[in-house]
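Progress note, project year one: complex with zinc ion.
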Amino acid sequence: MRTLDLCGVCAAKLATGYAIRKVAGGVDNKITCAECGRRRYGGTYEVTKKGGAGRGRG
Ligand SMILES: [Zn+2]
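Model obtained:
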């Protein structure tokens, strides 16, 4: 699991291949996107590979 700052566009893109979850904050703020490198509105996300072992339904 990694924690990345992502803009909305890249978060949506990664969501197709990864399980992503927004972490504390909630309100959109300006971040430097770890994916596209641009300074945009976004948030901090936990990015987990889909189908990984371990955490499923609790
Ligand atoms: Zn981005």
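The chain has one helix and four strands.
The mean pLDDT is 85.
No further modelling is planned for this target in the current period.
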